[in-house]
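User: Teach me something about this protein's shape.
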Amino acid sequence: MLTRIRERLRDPERVRRLAYAAVVLIIAAVVTTVEDGVSVPSGWAWLVLPVGLGATALRPRYRTLVFAVCAGFVAIVSTGESVQLGLAAAGLVFVSVCEDPARHPWLGWVGGLVGAAGALTNALLNGRGLYEQPFFFVTAGYLLAVLLRSWSRGRALTRETDDLRGQAAWLEQRTNLARELHDVVGHHVTAMVVQAEAGQLSEDPGAALRAIAGSGRTALSELDTLVVHLRDPDASIAVSAPPRLSDIDELLAQPLRQQGVTVRVQLDPEPGLDEIGVLTAYRIAQEALTNIARHAKATAAWVELVRVGDHARLRISDDGIGPPRAPTSGSGLLGIGERVSARGGSWELSHRPGGGTVVQANLPVANR
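Assistant: First, the predicted structure itself:
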């Protein structure tokens, strides 16, 4: 029961309705019970009830003005003998400020202050002494309204922030999934194409077919693992077997070698990369080598990973036709940029002296 009440009180709109109901009851109780000590016939105070009720049909800015005028009227007709009217004035200021669409409401505040100043002036002119209570009531009504508005805005911003965080997480997940699909499946498909082309000229086509089948099974396994995200968004993205740096030479370079490209791989045994850093380096090398197999028309390629100070430098180069004059950020290059940025590193695509392409990425080393 208490939990249900707390949940309801966390809804700004429900709290606002409860506050309005309490204020209406207070105003009605005060203006209908006042009998004397008012600077006008007591029946005039009753007017705020039908006027306030009619104001609910108006637009917010006009509604706010009507409530402000009612607050000023109730405050100005009150005296030291009808101090309870201050509660009604406070309630009307409260509603006026809450209903004010302006970011910084002032109509209800000014209306109440004008009425309080009028009540004080009337008291002084009639020799009734200082009558400062309306100022306190008006101030209390204004502060309570400001607090409710601030709390309501805070709750709204919290909900909006939660929604945006959820959307950002969803978009990040989709981006990661697209990147993994491109890197993993794209590499295996490229390998299958290379193996099929090599098998046509091979004396043992059966070996090529077996290699193609193996690549296909691996691609399907990785694809099944990634498709889990389409069913369970909370599942973490992971390939079936986390890659090792040595897999760059043993697995990634093989499609190129089957094309007749000489691939030399030089890996620092202690590059200073953690598990995520190793995966990032592996994926960058995978994309770069896949691009060489598809587009470079190279005869030789080099992969070098060394630690240089506080970062690990990964360089993949070839002696092919070089990068296009106006390179476009396709899925592969976009994926490299996203991976490097996520690690707080840098990368560049450039011409290799003597011809060819160089992809170089600098990745921060792990803190030990």
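Now, about its shape. The beta strands are 262-267, 300-308, 311-318, 346-351, 357-364. Residues 98 and 262 are 75 Å apart (CA to CA). If you'd like, I can walk through any region in more detail.
User: That's plenty for now, thanks!
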